[in-house]
Automatic annotation (TrEMBL):
Keyword Protein biosynthesis: no
Record bears the keyword Transferase: yes
Residues at the active site: H106 (proton donor/acceptor), C117 (nucleophile)
Annotated keywords: Cell shape, Cell wall biogenesis/degradation, Peptidoglycan synthesis, Signal, Transferase
Name of the molecule in the record: L,D-transpeptidase
Superkingdom, natural source: Bacteria
Residue ranges of every copy of the L,D-TPase catalytic domain listed in the record: 33-141
Pathway: Cell wall biogenesis; peptidoglycan biosynthesis
InterPro entries: LD-transpeptidase (IPR050979), LD_TPept_cat_dom (IPR005490), Transpep_catalytic_dom (IPR038063)
A single GO molecular function term of this UniProt record: transferase activity
Annotated Gene3D superfamilies: L,D-transpeptidase catalytic domain-like
EC main group: transferase
Length: 142
């Protein structure tokens, strides 16, 4: 579960509305998720006990041929200053890894697609990094 972190600003949690997303507070993931990523709307949310604590925030995801997978994943590890060997030493600041293929939520350009990761702007990436811990649930929907 999400733990309180000094780097995460205090916000009042808002109820998440699961199911088809229609409004700004609508979250298309289960209440069990700690982070929800909506690839088609290019948005992500931090959740705690089914309530929105941050978001929606803008994201970009995998380009054609390097799509970001959908499904339910678990945060495996975090790396504040990760550099991708597979992507020509590309910086991946504030990385929160969620699958066995090295995909992560991390700071990155919102003006281009990724190689399969979920890009957040740097401020949002820091917030997600501080709030998420190994074992937390990541849901990615299309």
């Amino acid at each position: 579960m999400l733990a309180a972190a000094a780097a995460v600003p205090a916000v009042v949690a808002q109820p998440a509305v699961a199911g088809p997303a229609t409004g700004a507070r609508s979250v298309p993931c289960d209440a069990t998720a700690d982070v929800c990523v909506d690839l088609s709307r290019h948005r992500a949310w931090l959740l705690e006990n089914g309530r929105v604590v941050e978001g929606p925030v803008r994201i970009t995801s995998g380009a054609r041929g390097s799509e970001t997978p959908t499904g339910t994943f678990t945060v495996q590890r975090k790396d504040r200053d990760h550099v991708s060997q597979e992507a020509g030493n590309a910086p991946m600041p504030w990385s929160v890894f969620f699958d066995d293929d090295g995909r992560a939520l991390h700071g990155g350009s919102l003006s281009r697609q990724s190689a399969g990761c979920v890009h957040l702007d740097d401020e949002d990436a820091r917030t997600f990094f501080a709030a998420l811990h190994p074992g937390d649930e990541v849901q990615i929907v299309d």
